[in-house]
Every structure is written in structure tokens, then in C-alpha cells.
Write a structure and sequence with these properties.
Elements (H helix, E strand, L loop, with lengths): L2 E26 L4 E19 L2 E16 L4 E15 L8 E16 L3 E25 L4 E29 L3 E19 L2 E16 L4 E15 L8 E8 L5 E6 L4 E29 L2 E30 L9 E18 L2 E16 L4 E16 L8 E16 L3 E31 L7 E6 L5 H7 L4 H7 L11 E6 L5
Antiparallel strand pairs: 1-6, 2-3, 3-4, 5-6, 7-13, 8-9, 9-10, 11-13, 12-13, 14-19, 15-16, 16-17, 18-19, 20-21
Helix pairs in contact: 1-2
Length: about 500
């Protein structure tokens, strides 16, 4: 009599403890700076390497600085600041896959000279570990061993892939343009679907232009372009589940202005980086219960947890806010433009069937003061809490939220009251952990005492299955059913069950 050892592989996701760190960026500029109006920033993680206990990575902070030069000209400076960091966790091992997300929590401009702008950034780093590990189980190949099997669904990791594509679109402006001051972009994922050996990701790229016309008017134009990209991952099927993350490589956004008979045509080329991970739930037969008709068996049952991929949500909403300028600040005589926007998500949770997302939106508002004949800038901070219905049913899911802010409008009233209005596109992904248990080992602990009777009457309680009775009295389930053909299981009432034993000399 022997037991065969088997195993199957499952995937588990867990979050690393988030932490903060600082990066000093020295951004080269040409000429004297009179006043800095806005600083926009995005962070992108490039490469992650996992060793024992450490996930090391490098990334870039892409800056867009809008400032007034000494001669009164408005200048845009785009710069990429590279950095390196690491996440430490004693459970990390080679072979784990770590997804790293970094956001700028706050920044300060330490100095601005004729050759350099020094910016100190406070960043927060988060990590998600994707681990694959084996779960041990057994099988039996002896006629005296009775096994009860069940089909469970296990979650497995298929693979990951990344792809960079360029989203191109054109903007027609029906008047002469003196200068494009700002060219910005953001991206949002709307849906992820799996096919045969590929994952299809649909979403939207939002472009924003800030330009100065020949009549010295500041104008803003938003461009929205949908996309659908297929990323190849071998082994993916239509039954698989995938998650996708999209980022703009802001430093490589290209803006080309082509003069036309009336106005200009602005060509935008926006590189988008897609990162995709694919998972699959598949059936697996495992032994739920086991016993021997001739010997006692000692079994070891162990639990394991795995991560199951759940649905994703996408919704759009509006946010608004107000700001009253203090007496020490110049009044607003003419609002010129919104120079840049930044967004930070601070919290997300599910309550009463709704997903709640909390955060702060920031907008740099540039305006003219007639009394001083000066351009001024003020930062509006708009805290928000938005919500929408979700279909997630598990009790405590892990939530990953990505959001973009677009179509921002600010108006001024009475010279000191600013009103902010903007839109959010929110994409949320969810995982749930599921705990299961399987028999991982079994051993024989000695022969059972042979019965000294040939017939036994068993008192069985209502609700008992044939398996329960057969295991209790160490007979095969089919023997019990054959000897009691009139009985239906589970028992609907307390019943006497007869067992006939074959005596051997």
C-alpha cells in the first residue's frame, strides 16, 4: 500500500509596505527666471530587479516647468530626472515578480538661478509581489484505500508582457498661433479582455495644448483619442483574466505645428507604455477525504491561500472646489490660463456596494493683475471624495486605482474668488485572497481490529451521506450502497443501516 505525491502551482499576490523617499532634481535652464508659474510631474518606473530580500528599480520623473523669463517671455522647460530606489522585504526571493508604483506626494523649489532649478521631491513607493508556489497533495493507488475527491478552481499565473505604442492625432486651430506653451498628455485604461495568446487593452489618451495666439490670447484645447492594443502573451485563452497598466512617456511626447492657410494644424505623437499580466483559473481534482478498509491512516491537512482576479471598474465623474485669495495676494483682474495640473490618490475603499476614491487635485492658475501690471500664479488644491457602484462581492478586496484629471476649467469672480471644475476618469482593479485546504500527506498507522461479527446494525442520523457511514465503519462506499439499495442519501431521517461483513478463515 502506498501513496503517490503530487503538487500543483498557484499564484499569490501581496503588497509590500509603502515607504517615502526624497529625490533632488537639478533642472538646467537658460537665462534668468523672473517667476515660476507651475511645475507638472509624472513618474514612471522602468526596470525592476528582484534579489533575495530586495526589489531594486530605476525610474524617471518627467517635469514640465512653466516660467516667466527676465524679459517677460513665458517659457516651457521639459526635463527628465532619473532616480533609483529599492523596496525591501525579507520574504522576497529570486523568481518573484514585483510591480512598483511611485507617486510624487509633494515637492519644493529650493532655488532658481540663471542656469539651474533645484526641486526636491517627496515620493511614495508601493509594491505588489506576484509569487508562484507549489501546493503538495497526494493520490492513492491501492484497492483498500477509499478516496473522496472534489474539483477546486486554482488561480495560476500565465505571464506578463509590455509594449510601447504611439498614439497620434491632429488638432486644427482656426487662427494663427504665436507659440505652443504646453503640451501634456495622460492615459486611462477602460477595459481588458483576453483572446487566444493575446490580451486586448482599450482605453483613452487625453492630450492638452496651451498656446498663445497672434492676438496674445491664451487658449487651451483638449484632445481625446480612444485606442485598442493587443499585447501577445503565450498561453492566454478567452477564459483567462488580465490586468493592465498604462503610462505616458511624457519626455517623448512630440508636438509639431504646421502652418495652414487659416490657422495651424498641431500634430501630437504620444508614446504609451502598456504593462499586462495574465492569470487563469482552472479546475484541479484533489482528495478531500481518505480512509482505509484494513488499516488506520494518519493524514496531514494544510491550508494555502491564493489570489483570484476579480472584475475591474471604470467610471467618470466631476469634482469642484473654491479658493479665496488672501489680502496679501494680488487680485485677479484677468484670468489667463491653467498652467498645469497634478493629481494624488490617497485612499480607496468599498462600502455598501460602492467604490470610494479619495485624493487631492492641484491646478496652477496664472492671472494678470492690472495694478502691478504683473503675471501671478496661485495653486488651487481641491480635496475630493468620489464614488460609484461596484460589482465586487468579496469582503476585503485589494484595490488598485489609477485616475487622470482632464478638462479642467477655472473661473474668477470678484477678483478674489476662484472656482475650479474638472473631470476624473477612474480605473480600479480588484483582487481577493481565497484560503483552501488539501491533504498534503498520509501514512498508515497500523491494522484495524478485525470484527468478530458478520452483520452489524448501524444507527445513522438524518443528513448523513453514504461516504460518512462507510468511512465510520471502514467499508467501501459502493458496498454500503449495494447492501442498502432502498436508501437514498443524504438520509432524510434517522435510519438503521445494515452492514454485512465477509469473514475470512
Amino acid at each position: 500500500m502506498s501513496f503517490e505525491k503530487n503538487s500543483f502551482k498557484v499564484v499569490k499576490k501581496r503588497r509590500l509596505q509603502k515607504s517615502e523617499f526624497s529625490v533632488e532634481c537639478n533642472i538646467p535652464v537658460e537665462g534668468e527666471i523672473n517667476k515660476i508659474f507651475s511645475v507638472c510631474h509624472t513618474v514612471m518606473v522602468e526596470n525592476v530587479e528582484v534579489s533575495t530580500g530586495v526589489a531594486s528599480y530605476n525610474g524617471n520623473i518627467d517635469f514640465c516647468i512653466l516660467y516667466e523669463s527676465a524679459n517677460g517671455e513665458i517659457v516651457t522647460n521639459n526635463y527628465t530626472c532619473p532616480f533609483t530606489s529599492k523596496l525591501e522585504d525579507e520574504k522576497l526571493v529570486v523568481g518573484d515578480k514585483v510591480q512598483v508604483n511611485v507617486d510624487v506626494v509633494d515637492f519644493s523649489i529650493d532655488s532658481a538661478t540663471s542656469s539651474n532649478v533645484k526641486i526636491n521631491c517627496l515620493l511614495v513607493q508601493r509594491g505588489v509581489v506576484i509569487s508562484c508556489y507549489n501546493v503538495d497533495t497526494i493520490d492513492a493507488n491501492d484497492n483498500d484505500i477509499c478516496t473522496k475527491k472534489e474539483e477546486i478552481y486554482i488561480s495560476t499565473f500565465i505571464g506578463e508582457a509590455s509594449e510601447i505604442f504611439t498614439n497620434s492625432n491632429e488638432v486644427s486651430i482656426k487662427e494663427p498661433v504665436k507659440k505652443v506653451l504646453l503640451c501634456d498628455a495622460s492615459v486611462s485604461v477602460k477595459n481588458v479582455e483576453c483572446g487566444n495568446n493575446f490580451v486586448a487593452v482599450t482605453g483613452e489618451v487625453i492630450g492638452r495644448l496651451l498656446y498663445l495666439t497672434e492676438n496674445d490670447r491664451y487658449e487651451t484645447s483638449y484632445i481625446s483619442e480612444s485606442f485598442k492594443e493587443e499585447v501577445e502573451i503565450e498561453g492566454v485563452t478567452k477564459n483567462s483574466v488580465a490586468e493592465a497598466e498604462a503610462n505616458i512617456k511624457r519626455s517623448q511626447v512630440k508636438c509639431e505645428v504646421v502652418e495652414q492657410e487659416k490657422g495651424v494644424m498641431v500634430q501630437l505623437n504620444i508614446p504609451v507604455c502598456l504593462k499586462v499580466c495574465a492569470f487563469e483559473e482552472k479546475p484541479c481534482n484533489v482528495i478531500k477525504d481518505i480512509y482505509s478498509c484494513r488499516e488506520d491512516i494518519e493524514v496531514t491537512t494544510e491550508s494555502f491561500d491564493m489570489t483570484k482576479e476579480l472584475n475591474q471598474d471604470f467610471f467618470e465623474t466631476k469634482i469642484d472646489g473654491t479658493l479665496n485669495l488672501g489680502e496679501e495676494q494680488p487680485r485677479v483682474d484677468k484670468l489667463l490660463f491653467v498652467a498645469g495640473t497634478n493629481l494624488n490618490i490617497s485612499n480607496s475603499y468599498i462600502q455598501n456596494g460602492e467604490l470610494f476614491v479619495e485624493g487631492v487635485a492641484k491646478a496652477n492658475v496664472v492671472y494678470l493683475n492690472d495694478e502691478e501690471n504683473s503675471l501671478n500664479s496661485v495653486t488651487m488644491e481641491v480635496p475630493f471624495v468620489v464614488s460609484d457602484k461596484t460589482s465586487v462581492s468579496c469582503g476585503n478586496p485589494e484595490i488598485m486605482v489609477n485616475a487622470i484629471l482632464y478638462d479642467v476649467d477655472v473661473i474668477a469672480k470678484k477678483g478674489r474668488d476662484l472656482y475650479f471644475d474638472g473631470k476624473l476618469k477612474i480605473h480600479a482593479r480588484y483582487d481577493c485572497d481565497e484560503i483552501c485546504a488539501v491533504i498534503t500527506s498520509a501514512s498508515l498507522s497500523g491494522e484495524t481490529v478485525e470484527r468478530d461479527c458478520s452483520i452489524e446494525l448501524i444507527y445513522a442520523k438524518s443528513g448523513m451521506e453514504a461516504w460518512d457511514i462507510a468511512k465510520q465503519f471502514k467499508v467501501r462506499e459502493e458496498v454500503l450502497m449495494l447492501q442498502n439499495p432502498e436508501m437514498a442519501f443524504p438520509l432524510v431521517e434517522d435510519t438503521n443501516v445494515i452492514i454485512y461483513y465477509q469473514k475470512s478463515n
